Amino acid sequence: MDQLLAVAGQFTPQGRVLDLREYGNGNVNDTFLVTVGARVRRAHPTLLAADGDQRFILQRLNLNVFHRPELVMGNLRIVSDHVARRLARVPLIGGRRFEVPRVLLTREGRDHFLDSGGSFWRALSFIEAAETFDTIKDLGHAQEVGYALGRFHSLLSDLAPDHLSDTLPGFHLTPGYLAHYYEVLARHGARPSPEVNYGLQFVAERRAWAPVLENAAAQGRLRQRPIHGDPKVNNVMLDTATGQAVAMVDLDTVKPGLVHYDIGDCLRSGCNPLGEETGDWEMVRFEPELCRAMLAGYLSLAGDFLTETDYAYLYDAIRLLAFELGLRFFTDYLAGNVYFKARHPEHNLVRALVQFKLTESIESQATTIGAIIRDLR
User: Fold this and answer.
1) Nearest-angstrom CA–CA distance, 324 and 322
2) CATH number of the domain within which 170 lies
3) DSSP secondary structure of 65-109
4) Average pLDDT of the segment spanning 308-321
5) 146 with 99, same domain?
6) Above 80 in pLDDT, residue 327?
């Protein structure tokens, strides 16, 4: 704890750290919520909305995942500055607010701190009076999650994607994950069980279809834009009083890419009422009415910049991202749980089965989902 307090103190030139505790349930980085005394106002005036003790997020980046953390920080600063400028020019109507976390600097004016062990630490502003949920509560929540992603894409729609670094080369490139899966399978093999055999057959049956979005991009049918990279339900913050979406968080995966990755990932996450951590994987189902609500919220803003071809690949995106995440969990299980944090040896296998069942449910409702997309255009 003393070491954590010392690291937190690097981002509070004035004011005393009053409390520090673990925060959230992320699978990659270590995250803490820090409470500091009011004197921090002089050091970080934009951090504070009112007098009294204030809070910020302290994170230790997983350098096994983010090999170039300086690029992650560069993207964060570009995106947060761009969003702030856009909102300053055209404020939101109807009393709504929207923000992304801002990077806080150290005493030396740096955007990170390296401790004696080589760990990479950074601090971000905390979104006050807001909360997240791991699963969708109701149709209104679903629409707000879609709205948040649409607002995020809309605010970045005039930012050239080449201004952003590719912090995770290969991220959301399903053919690459498939190739890695077969490498892991050849190297480690698979311990037979009904669940593992199901996963092996599931992947084999979809192998030829996996490059659908990348093939479309190579043919010039889809183009790159700035994307969030991980817009699952619990990365959207809702105002605790109004229930309106007020922020997109966890921006480490921001990069150039296809907005279809974000759309598919958001719907994959939001339209599974049991959530991706459920143990009842055989009961997982994709709910089309949640899909309708989320797409309605998204397209209320994103309809201004999506093309006819973009619409043509929306169903493929929804199906693909559930399959892709399942493939990643399954591969990590076979490799010995080296990427995603796992609470027990079978954890990533169960996570994979959840996504595979979700993919099956999406496939069984292809006609219904296609009709929803057409209705909302």
Assistant:
1) 5
2) 3.90.1200.10
3) T-S-HHHHHHHHHHHHHHHHHHHHHSPPSTT---B-PPEEP-TTS
4) 97
5) no
6) yes
